[in-house]
Structure formats: C-alpha cells, structure tokens
C-alpha cells in the first residue's frame, strides 16, 4: 500500500494542475467566443485522442513497464501546454492554439491511464481494491474539488498563462514520485520477438466481450458517461450566464465536496459486497440530482444539487471498477482497461460533439423570451440565456434514471459479484 500511496500523491498533484488548466481553458474559450459549442469542442479535442488511443496504451501497458509508461505519458503531455503558452505569449491567441495544445496533451495521456489502472492491480490485494478505488477517485476528483476555486481566484487577478505554468510544474513532481516507486518494483521484460499488436488487441477485446456481465456493465457505463458529460460541459456556460468566473470556480469546488465525501466514505467503509445493488441505487440518485440542477438559477440550490450529484459518482465508479477488476485476469488488465476506456467514454465524446450545438441552436432559442417554450416550461424554470441548458440537464437526468432502472439491476451484472464469491468459497 505504501508504494501505491506514493504514486497516488503524485497523481493527486497532477490532477489538480490538469483541472486548473481545464477550468481555465473552458473560461478562456467562452469569454473569447461566447459560444457553448466551442466550449464543448474544446472538451472534445482534449478527450478524443485519449479515448481513441487508449487500446494502444493498454497493449503497451501489458507489454512494457507500466510505471515507465506513466512517466512518458506525464512528461510528454506537457508539450501541449507549452505550445498553448508560447502561442498566447507571442500574441497568437485564439481558440485554434487551444484546440491543438489540448489535443497534443491528450495523445500522451492515453499512455498513462491504462498503465495507472493496471498498476493498482499490480501493487494491491483484492481486499484493498475498493479502498484504493476511493483514493484514486479522490485524486481524479480533485480537478473538480480543488482546481476550480484555485483557478477562479487566479483568473480574477491574472490570465491563463499563469495556470499553464503551474500545471507544467506539477509534472515534475508526478514523474519524481513514479520514478521513486519504479526503482523498487521488479518488472518482467517482454519477449519482443513474440509481439503481435493485432493479436494482443484481440485478446484485450475478448477479455471484455467473452464476459456477459462485463459487457453489460461497459454498455451501461457508456450511457452514463454520455449523460454525465452534459453537466460537466454545460455547467460553465449556464453559470456564466448569470455569474462571473470567480463565482463559477468557487461553486464548482464547493459542489465537488460531494465527490470527496463519497470517496472518503468508500475508503472508510471499504465496501466488500452488494456492488451491483449500490451501483443501481447510486445511478438513480445521480440522475435525480442532475435533473434538479437544471431547474433553478439560484446558485445556492445549484450547489446543493451538485453536491448530492457528485456524492453519488464515487459509488458508481467504485462498484463498476471492482466488478470489472475481479472479473478480468491481471495479465490482460492493461489491454482490458484500454478497451473499456474507449467503449465507455465514447459516451463523453458523443456528448461533447452534440451538447454545445443543442444548447446554442435548439434548446437555447426555445427558452428565450420569445421562444416556443417560454410560455410553458419557461414559466417553471425561467427564460433567457442559460435556461435552455437547464432544460437539457433536466432531460438528461430523467433519461439517466430510466437507464439505471432498466440496466442497472440486470441479472448479468448481479452475477458478476456472485461468480466471484463462488470462486472465493471454492478456493
């Protein structure tokens, strides 16, 4: 556990820096263009390369030193940030350098993610998976919990360049912690003569498709990622329609306290059973609170609903993570997580591709003062800028609850937990 904690501290620091950059980029693009569509495009180009290249990163993580893959991914992802900084510093600002820079960083992050997930299995026992998953989520969620308030305060007195410098500095800390652990872990050198990329890709795919429970869970999580992406992407333009970036940063950080609460609760409770039931209930709760977030322009009510929404997410992620981890052999987990990443997070990609356009050109006009829904739904949730986004969140939350009821309690997902218990009894 000590080695895992060392790596975890490095990833926590890196996540805070990355979250600050993501917040600054969304604010920068929206203030430069006033377009929710371009904000979602920025999120898309920052996300798509990582998703598409995750299977490649997974194959390499199973084939080579996983800690070395993390070091390479962290180090070279700094190139994209440096490109953005240079462009702004030399007066070549605009959205295009942002898009190019975040895409470059995303390419190298694809090497890091599968290796990081597989490293958890390398370093820990099965009894420690749930607790480790809670800690991993604390680190990942720090970009929502800590980063926005820091970035918001910095942006109130400086600009995006300061945040880029801070983020680039965090990479050195992360690389140092990974390198320190790597020295004490013996790695198996691959037999390069037997390397067959296509064969290993198929083996990673088979580890998922051959298990009905894993495949069902992957499909469910793909839908959930689609809905969750709406609130992650559209919260910035919705709140900026009636507040400033400092308020937005504080609101996002306070709201993300829910993720900390959920992650800490998981770490303390160290859940060891009823994963499928907890997964279904948490999905339903998340959908309800997402819908409520879109019903109001009160910053206080939005914060309350977001806190409750984010509290449910760690339980969803932990239960899905453990159910998959106990169902797939360790020697193919790098490839499996790479494939799972692309299959589940394609939901994020689709959402990023459509949510901005829907907000700007479909739902937004419907709830303007003279919109076709102003006299009906507008009387309930209000009209004007940002109210179309509110309606989108309501619809997304309702559909999320529906999918949770239909798929969250499916037999194939429940049997994943039962089969693992049977194996433990037989052994």
Automatic annotation (TrEMBL):
Residues 3-414 form the Major facilitator superfamily (MFS) profile domain. PANTHER family: MACROLIDE-EFFLUX PROTEIN, MAJOR FACILITATOR SUPERFAMILY (MFS) PROFILE DOMAIN-CONTAINING PROTEIN. InterPro entries: MFS, MFS_dom, MFS_trans_sf. The keyword rRNA-binding does not apply. The keyword Membrane applies. It is found in: Cell membrane. The lineage of its organism: Bacteria, Bacillati, Bacillota, Clostridia, Eubacteriales. This is MFS transporter. The chain crosses the membrane at residues 12-30, 36-61, 68-88, 94-112, 132-154, 160-181, 214-235, 247-268, 275-293, 299-324, 336-359, 389-409. It is a multi-pass membrane protein.
